[in-house]
Amino acid sequence: MPIQAVSDHVAVAVPSIEDAAGRWHDALGGGWVTPRFAAERAGFATRQLRYPGGAKLELLEPTDEDGFAARFLERFGARIHHVTLKVPALLPAVETLEQDGFDVVDVFAEGDVWHEAFLRPTQVGGLIVQVAWAGRTEEDWARLTGTSPESPRPDAATLLGPTLQHPRPSEAAQVWKCLGAEVVGSDDGIVARWPDAPLDVVVEPGAAAGPVGLRFTDASPIAADDTHGPPVISS
What we know:
CATH class: Alpha Beta
Shape: globular
CATH superfamily: 2,3-Dihydroxybiphenyl 1,2-Dioxygenase, domain 1
Oligomer: single chain
Number of domains: 1
Number of strands: 15
Order of helices and strands: EHEEEEHEHEEEHEHEEEEE
Mean pLDDT: 96
Radius of gyration: 17 Å
Low-confidence stretches: none
CATH architecture: Roll
C-alpha cells in the first residue's frame, strides 16, 4: 500500500556550502530559498536552492567531524545524500511503510515544526530517503528569519531530479511505488514521479545500486568533483 507523499527536494553532501555554491548557485543559476541553517547538535548546516519549475536542491555541510554528514563525506565523498518526501502526517506514513516491510529508522515526531524518519540506503537502491512532515511553510520560515527567497536567474538551468542505478530497475520500481510515486518503465529503466511535484527520480540499469548524478535541462554536462559534488547530467 503506497503512502501519500510528494517529492520535496534532493540533498547533496559537500565539504562547504559556500564553495559548492559556485556551481549550483553561480553557474547554474538557482535561487537561494533559505538562509544558511546550522543544526549544531546534529553536526551539520544546510541551505536550499530553487530552480525554474520549482525543484529544490539542498546543500548539506558538516560542522562537526564526528557528525553523520562528516562521516558520510569521509566514506563516500561529495555526492547525493538523500531525497526528501513530504507527507501529511509522519506516523501514519511510518506505520504503512513498516507494514510494507521497510525498516524505518530515526523516527522523530515531537513538537509542531518538523517530523522525520528515514529509510536505509540498502532498502532504496543505495539512496537515503527522508520522509518528513513540516508544520511551517517556506513563507512562514521567511517571515521568521526576516529573509526573502531569491528567484532563480532568468537563464538558470532546470533541475529535474537525481538519476540512480540499480541492477534490476523493475525491482526498484516497487520501492518507489510504496513511496507514493507513479512509476513508468521496466528493466530498461524507470521514472518515478509524484503528481504536481517538479522533482522526479530516474533509475537506470547498472551493476551496483546507487546515485549517479543530477539531471538538468539547459545545462552542459559537468563532471563530479570533491568541492561541488555529483555530476550534472544534461537532459
